[in-house]
Amino acid sequence: TLKGKVAVITGSTSGIGLATARVLAQNGADIMLHGLMSQQDGEALASELASEFGVKVCFDDADMRDPAATKALLERTVAKLGSVDILVNNAGIQHTETVDNFPEQKWHDIIAINLSAAFFTTQKALPVMKKKGWGRIVNIASVHGLVGSVKKSAYCAAKHGIVGLTKVTALENADQGITVNAICPGWVNTPILQAQVDDMAASKGIDKETAKRALVTTKQPLPEMMEPSQIGELILFLCSDAARSITGASLPIDGAWTAQ
Ligand code: NAD
């Protein structure tokens, strides 16, 4: 059980982050819910989770393109919930374009949100975790932290970066009761894929459900998208005592994508 633990999950208003918030809350953790959502909708979602699982849930809409806002998210988590025991760096965006045509601002945004934000949250969380002698940091990388794909230069650069950050943070804190791991999912059924599904549907003249399946099988031997809760369940395991020796790892959950 995670009773008495505080989990901050960035980008938890949607997709993998929201599914993870639900799994950790169900197991007793208090939750800092975070993402780009109106204060009103965020607070409604927070109170829905709080009453469903009987835990404390707060909401924060810090924009992770901004390092100061990102650090403040961690400060507010400690102020409102009393600690940070579990940090899940999950917020992320995607943009697909060839290197030579890639928009400069998109490059900066993807590096800021998908990579640098995790560095700033980690900097703020470590002193709190060290004081307690216990902590779990889980960075949501991607198969694109391990291999490349066309039109994903910024995303692959950020995700490979997250894998490196994970290793160093794990090494520096291996004797502190803190584990630091990256999870590397293949295709997960969430809104981040919508633009790619739409492009596939338009270019092949097929419906969106067929396009989703076509997209998955371009890369992933297991021919179905994962559900976001499957990532949440792996994070729950990494938070357990049984997983205390797993640190510095980058764990694929990718239907054999990177086995090729
Ligand atoms: P999603 O679009 O459903 O969720 C993204 C979350 O990030 C949302 O809560 C959103 O509000 C937040 N976010 C976006 N921009 C932000 C900003 N500027 N500041 C603060 N928060 C911001 O997508 P998802 O698929 O659940 O993605 C979660 C993570 O999983 C991402 O890091 C993504 O790269 C990774 N991932 C996804 C897949 C997949 O197939 N869906 C595969 C591998 C890795």
Automatic annotation (TrEMBL):
The keyword Oxidoreductase applies. Its EC number is 1.1.1.30. Pfam families: adh_short. GO terms for biological process: monocarboxylic acid metabolic process. Keywords: Oxidoreductase. GO terms for molecular function: 3-hydroxybutyrate dehydrogenase activity. Belongs to the short-chain dehydrogenases/reductases (SDR) family. This is 3-hydroxybutyrate dehydrogenase. It comes from Saliniradius amylolyticus. The lineage of its organism: Bacteria, Pseudomonadati, Pseudomonadota, Gammaproteobacteria, Alteromonadales.
